[in-house]
Design the sequence.
């Protein structure tokens, strides 16, 4: 991944340190630079509540905004609060984050999928209507890839059938809609995620936004604020993760840096994680106060143990298959625990600490999005793709359909040797093209088998996913590379 001391884009995801998974994987692209991150870190302690949390709690005539630990926790809480349970159905697009399926399944309900508008990435109201039955309790409509889905038709369906309309805004932060509590949306509930791969990302956390009437009925979610010590530890680890993706050291194809949270422990940088080394955390803060160069120098002094990294080139099928099976098994075990013990409801839901680093970083990113510079740059790259891809061979969206692009989705209209194409792009252009954002359509995901009913449009959605690519739109994608990428894609699709 890429980082400079200025305004370069960076990928970053933070995973909570545990004995089983003491890792922080840098793979999320943020539109802020190291200098801004340092400033956010140093000002967090003195910072008051940011705009994202100003609406927490119920306000008369305004939407209520509730911080939650994760978007999926917010979804399971909302569904449970409004009586969705065993024997009920929740209608959702087949092309969707699989964690949505987990959240619905944790309530005991069953998912019924619906498809997309033919030749597009937009949810289809007609397909959705066909999926509704007498057992349907809720309807989830996503803004896939940041595309602005029109909700009027879905709102009419929800009103006609007495359904809870949930707007999944995890990939579509409202850049031009003002404060979240002031948004005008027909959806009774809107969900936001700040996990990795989102417009606003700190690696964890999310928000639930409810209409005034639903907020009065739902009450407040069970929350336990993140304390200052945890916030400080996250901040230090987050900043180190950014530094370890410095483009000056690792330019070219996509790079992931495993700079585990155990690096800030007292156990010699290896083995099982210990209590965070307070001196190391303090040192990160001290370096940040002196500026980005000092942070880079401090990380350099920490030794080669912080530089374990690898190229993100495709793995051999045997290794990749084994890893895929292992991950699927782990996911099934996790899902079984959730279903058996109600873990998503029993666990305290962490929230953003008012004045904390996570909140400060979200506020920083929010301002960058609303200023329009980075959003406009991403739209410009998306516009180039839309103007130059062959419409007879590729399905793609218009650039003005999204206020902010995380990546630009395209799908081959004919069978495509996708793995070979992804490898060729990485080798010839040093460009990362992700085959997908989500692993598959919901009804084909192994761990959700038996919990998802493939509804209308599922066949078309599966065919779209089989030819899906996500093209980069970040600041490290100059026009020359975008042009070469388009030429390669058109050439491959024509074969």
Sequence:
């Amino acid at each position: 991944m890429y980082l400079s001391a200025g305004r370069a884009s960076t990928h970053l995801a933070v995973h909570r340190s545990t004995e089983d998974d003491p890792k922080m994987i840098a793979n999320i692209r943020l539109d802020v630079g190291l200098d801004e991150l340092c400033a956010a870190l140093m000002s967090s302690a003195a910072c008051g509540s940011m705009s994202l949390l100003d609406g927490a709690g119920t306000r008369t005539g305004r939407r209520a905004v509730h911080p939650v630990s994760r978007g999926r926790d917010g979804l399971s809480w909302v569904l449970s609060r409004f009586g969705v349970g065993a024997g009920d159905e929740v209608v959702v697009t087949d092309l969707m984050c699989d964690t949505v399926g987990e959240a619905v399944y944790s309530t005991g309900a069953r998912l019924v999928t619906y498809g997309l508008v033919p030749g597009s990435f937009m949810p289809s109201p007609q397909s959705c209507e066909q999926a509704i039955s007498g057992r349907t309790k809720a309807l989830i409509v996503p803004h896939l890839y940041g595309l602005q889905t029109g909700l009027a038709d879905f709102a009419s369906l929800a009103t006609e059938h007495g359904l809870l309309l949930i707007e999944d805004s995890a990939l579509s932060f409202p850049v031009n809609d003002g404060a979240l509590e002031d948004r005008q949306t027909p959806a009774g509930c809107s969900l936001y995620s700040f996990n990795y791969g989102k417009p606003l990302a700190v690696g964890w956390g999310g928000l639930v936004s409810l209409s005034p009437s639903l907020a009065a009925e739902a009450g407040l979610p069970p929350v336990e604020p993140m304390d200052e010590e945890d916030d400080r530890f996250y901040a230090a680890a987050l900043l180190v993760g950014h530094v370890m993706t410095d483009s000056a050291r690792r330019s070219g194809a996509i790079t992931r840096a495993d700079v585990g949270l155990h690096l800030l422990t007292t156990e010699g940088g290896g083995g099982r994680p210990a209590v965070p080394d307070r001196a190391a955390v303090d040192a990160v803060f001290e370096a940040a106060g002196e500026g980005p160069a000092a942070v880079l120098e401090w990380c350099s002094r920490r030794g080669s143990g912080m530089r374990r990294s690898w190229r993100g080139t495709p793995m051999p099928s045997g290794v990749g298959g084994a890893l895929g099976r292992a991950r699927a098994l782990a996911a099934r075990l996790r899902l079984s625990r959730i279903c058996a013990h109600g873990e998503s409801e029993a666990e305290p839901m962490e929230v953003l600490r008012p004045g904390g680093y996570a909140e400060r970083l979200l506020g920083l990113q929010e301002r960058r999005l609303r200023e329009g510079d980075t959003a406009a740059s991403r739209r410009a790259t998306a516009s180039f793709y839309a103007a130059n891809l062959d419409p007879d061979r590729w399905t793609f969206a218009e650039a003005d359909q999204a206020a902010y692009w995380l990546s630009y989705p395209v799908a081959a209209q004919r069978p495509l040797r996708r793995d070979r194409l992804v490898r060729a792009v990485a080798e010839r252009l040093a460009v990362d093209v992700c085959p997908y954002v989500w692993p598959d359509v919901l009804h084909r995901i192994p761990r959700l088998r038996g919990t998802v009913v493939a509804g209308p449009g599922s066949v078309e959605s599966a065919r779209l996913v089989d030819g899906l690519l996500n093209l980069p739109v970040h600041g490290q994608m100059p026009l020359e590379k975008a042009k070469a990428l388009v030429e390669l894609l058109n050439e491959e699709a024509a074969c």
